[in-house]
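One such shown below:
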Amino acid sequence: MVIPLDMQFRIIIFGFAAGIITGMIFDFYRIIRGIKTVKYLIIIEDTLFWILCSLVVFVFLLYTQYAVLSVYVYIYLILGIIFYLWMFSKYFIAVEIAIIKNTSILMRILIKYIVYPFKFIFYKNNKVSKN
């Protein structure tokens, strides 16, 4: 079956975009996983990551190009991953780490201000009951 030229172009573009999406998901997973974990846990995490990643890529390709899976899609998917890791990965990781760091600081501040009135009330009650 001969595929029309515009469909072939879409296959190339969306295969490449799926590779970039896979690279972004991989960077996010790399930050979440950390460096030192147990070997058995790494195997389970990696398996779940690749299952999730394959589902996301399949749904993306299904939505954009009727899930035409040929050798070319896999080639452009791999090229998209390589391009993303080569060009954008370090910047994306830096932004993710900054977001995580700022969010954790914000959460600590919010928890501190939420817990403070309760500490004040219970500390005051304990001080009064001891006298």
